Amino acid sequence: MSAPRLAHRLRGWGGVGAMAVVCALALAFVLLLPRTGASGAGGATGSGGGRLTHALQAAVEKKCPNGEYPQDQSLSPSGGSGDTKNVDAIKERGRLVVGVDTNSYRWGYLDPNNADGELEGFDIDLAHRIAGDILGDPAKVTFKAIPTSRRIDAIKGGEVDMVVRTMTITCDRLKDVAFSAPYFKTGQQVLAPKNSTITGYDKSLAGKRVCSAQTSTALDNLVADKGHRIPASTDIRTVVPNQLDCLVKLQLGEVDAVVTDGALAASQAAQDPTVELKGPVFTDEYYGVAMKQGSTDLVRQVNRTLENYIKDGGWADSYRTWLHPTMDLDGKKSASATPPEAHYK
Q1: How many of the other CB atoms lie within 10 Å of CB of 168?
Q2: Confidence of residue 17 (pLDDT cuts 50, 70, 90)
Q3: Beta strand pairing status for 188-193 and 275-278?
Q4: Cβ(149)–Cβ(244) under 8 Å?
Q5: Quick one: which of 82, 96, 126, 345 has the fewest CB in 10 Å?
Q6: Where are the strands (E) in the chain, listed by range?
Q7: What are 60-73's pLDDT values in tens digits?
Q8: Is residue 171 exposed (0-12), middle (13-18) or buried (19+ Cβ within 10 Å)?
Q9: pLDDT (tens digit, 9 = 90+) per residue, 159-190?
Q10: Integer Cα distance of 188 and 181 in angstroms
Q11: Residues 173, 179: contact at Cβ < 8 Å?
């Protein structure tokens, strides 16, 4: 078990004792790492001190400066001041405007075989449910295609009411937008050709060209881990506006691997039988619905929808329809098949 995963398991123990265990294991982990003299993109050197600092940061990276995990900082569905101005504005307009992906197979995409020409996928189902709860009609939603790199800008600029687009809740993003409680759990993973010598997020990436999307957690991890968890010779310069562009570059042979959320990578592997997931997930990622900061009534409304969506089986039905075929493989149920538990601040 990695130090970050142990740190997550220790949540709830509290106190110095729990962190002492994490730090001790992180130190043991570092001492077992192969020595390297190269410096990484994250700016840390290959010295023992640099590796120790990085490992200790990894052990506690889940927590924000306020001491809370990012996915546990949303608002309870109940309570509040009674001010519903944001929800009322949507009702007055008569449409919910949602930023989505239109190119992620089984998440948000246009099926050419669908005569209706409507967007489909797991995220699309959730957006329809939110619209139905606010406006009484799940069809009263306007979808706007938003690239990975513009998700936050679209919210802050008022282009959309919310983004439902496989968006991981992180401490940095919480500075710019408000998030719902988590609605899906996955983790970062490597996607590469089946005949590749790459085995995962490890030393097999030495000298390999790796693609990630702008403003993505995958890029954040690659920058921080270069020269530590992955070799310093890993080429991480290929960065694209939209995550699916990485798959295209992989197919064209312009890169050797892609790092992205495992749930997205699984769908891409289902699209292209020449590629596959390499190695296990190496992070925990929690997706949330992103909204403008200060829209507390809308956040509470979405969290109420999520609670009911999970409780009445809507979430499970959507998972079976869209994600089960790509994620529950070889007769094994994916860890993502169970919705994450909500913990409110």
Answers
A1: 25
A2: very low
A3: antiparallel
A4: no
A5: 82
A6: 96-100, 103-104, 108-110, 119-120, 141-145, 162-163, 177-179, 184-186, 188-193, 209-213, 235-240, 257-261, 275-278, 285-287, 290-292
A7: 347 999 999 999 99
A8: middle
A9: 999 999 999 999 999 999 999 999 999 999 99
A10: 20
A11: yes
Tell which residue, 137, 128, 129, 142, has the closest CA to residue 99: 142
User: How far, CA to CA in Å, does 255 sit from each of 184, 271, 323?
Assistant: 29, 18, 27
Say whether 115 sits in a helix, a strand or coil. coil
The Cα angle at residue 18 between residues 17 and 19, in degrees rounded to 5: 95
- Residue of 208, 188, 199 whose CA lies nearest to 255: 208
In angstroms and rounded to an integer, the radius of gyration of the C-alpha atoms of the chain is 20
Which tokens sit at 131?
């619209």
| CA 183 to each of CA 144, 287, 307: distance values in angstroms, whole numbers, following the listed order | 20, 6, 9
Token representation of residue 142? 């306007």
Please choose, from the candidates 235, 221, 322, the residue with its C-alpha nearest in 3D space to the C-alpha of residue 281: 221
Distance CA 77, CA 217 (A): 27
pTM for the structure as a whole? 0.80
Structural tokens at position 333: 């149920």
Q: Give one DSSP letter per residue of 205-271, joined into a string.
A: GTT-EEEEETT-HHHHHHHHHBTTTB-TT-EEEEEESSTHHHHHHHHTTS-SEEEEEHHHHHHHHHH
